[in-house]
Amino acid sequence: YAMLLSLIFLIVLVAAVVGFVFRHEIKTNFESNLNLALKDYNVTADRHSEAVDTIQRTLHCCGVQNYSDWEKTEYFAQKGIPRSCCKSQDDCSEEDLKDASKAKMKVFVDGCFFLVTSTMESKMSVVAGMSFSIACFQVM
């Protein structure tokens, strides 16, 4: 039993250290993967596209740095900015989404990268606190 608790303690400790040490690499990888997901975005049931839509709807954001990131994609040339960026689904027409200047008033203008990373960082203190509490409890 003591060996099992020691193993769990070490795993928690290593995970915390690795997460802290490699946090910048995690951000860089997330940003490059989000850019890649925007580039390859399509309407089909692609998991990456669904993830982008979910992030944009949930965090009320659009694009990586801002909504204009969509202008560099093939999807924008065909259909404009995705509907998941719309502030109100009822007030977003396809013509508005194809025109970046009109879309600015209808879509979320903030980028998702900053919102996702700031959300993760704010929750990391809770995760670190819980991990530390569990580790202390195991030591006792």
From TrEMBL:
Keyword Glycoprotein annotated: yes
Organism per entry: Psilopogon haemacephalus
Location in the cell: Membrane
Region forming the signal peptide: 1-19
InterPro entries in alphabetical order: Tetraspanin/Peripherin, Tetraspanin_EC2_sf, TSN6/7_LEL
Annotated protein name in UniProt: Tetraspanin-7
Membrane topology term: Multi-pass membrane protein
GO CC annotations, alphabetized: plasma membrane
Keyword list, A-Z: Glycoprotein, Membrane, Signal, Transmembrane, Transmembrane helix
Protein role: May be involved in cell proliferation and cell motility.
